Amino acid sequence: MTGKASMLSLLAKDRFASAAVVVLGFIALCAAVGPVLLGDLAVEQNLRAVNLPPFSIGHGWEFVLGSDSLGRSVAARLVVAAGTTMSVAVPAVLLSLTVGSAWGMWAGFSGGWRENVSMRVGDVILSFPSLLLAVVVLYVFTPSVANLIAVLAVARIPVYLRTARAEAAELRSRLFVDAARTFGTGSGAIIRRHIAPSVLPTLLTVAAVDFCFVMLTESSLSFLGIGIQPPDVSWGLMVAQGRQELQTAWWIAVFPGLAIVFTTVSAAMLAAWARVAGDPGQRWRLTLPRKERISA
């Protein structure tokens, strides 16, 4: 309990990290309840309210952020799109984190040909740019949420594989690992009890940063028309649908673009804070005033 209280107090002292938590919490809330509460409103067309500018609340509260070319509420679509975007980014990151971490820790702890083969497989996957690989796969197969999650997860597995392998390879020669071997502990138990707890903080930090990349990739694919398909809506798809009306109805594309920016920046800021907070040797920096942290 003391450790949790200490981390919360450090978080409360960092204004930027606290703001990032608030932003991400709000987006998570929108993603959780938005499709249920505003799902019908997001697809409801009102041809009498086409391309209304922001704050057109005279036509109803739902047009606080304006409407698109079909008279649909931008605010409602923005909230519902948060759920769609998160439903792709979060599972993709969790899947790649789970597979890549387990694979990397096993390869790093085992060493030898297992490690070499695992790293070569990771190099092959990394040799293809993630966005290009996703474009090719989704062009060959039907664009869908499941295919999108699968291709993004596979493309990001090497990131966790390489990180976990490096950490596990360094830890396998530590004294506490040798002691566990001496007492007859199996390799699987050593990885679960000793390697994984030490590697997990680093992997979670990598996952927070990777979340930004995955979300931007999903938005890019939806923008190109091979990601989320109508009638579903995502932030990237909203930007794509509004790009042709930037001069006359800028809000259709700008607001989802801002949502992408705020989410990725908040996740990156929280990841930077978590990296320092999760390192006992660096945690003391968070107790300093922000102006003194750079020089320290």
Rounded to the nearest angstrom, the distance between the terminal CA atoms is 29 Å
Please, what is the average pLDDT? 84
Number of domains: 1
Number of strands: 0
Label the structural class. Answer: mainly alpha
Instruction: Estimate the helix proportion, in percent.
Output: over 70%
Q: In the CATH hierarchy, what is the superfamily?
A: MetI-like
What is the architecture at the second tier of CATH? Orthogonal Bundle
Please tell me how large the radius of gyration is.
Answer: 23 Å
Number of helices: 11
Secondary-structure element order, N to C? HHHHHHHHHHH
| Main pleated-sheet profile | none
Quickly name the level 1 CATH class: Mainly Alpha
Proportion in β-strands: under 5%
What is the CATH fold-level name?
Answer: MetI-like fold
Overall outline: elongated
Q: Uncertain runs with pLDDT below 50, 5 residues or more? A: none
Question: Which secondary structure elements does this structure contain, and how are they paired or packed?
Answer:
Blueprint: H1 2-13, H2 15-43, H3 74-110, H4 112-126, H5 130-140, H6 145-171, H7 175-182, H8 187-224, H9 235-242, H10 251-277, H11 290-293
Task: Explain briefly what this protein structure is.
The chain is mainly α and 296 residues long. 73% of the residues lie in helices and 0% in strands. It has a single domain (14-290), classed as MetI-like fold, CATH 1.10.3720.10.
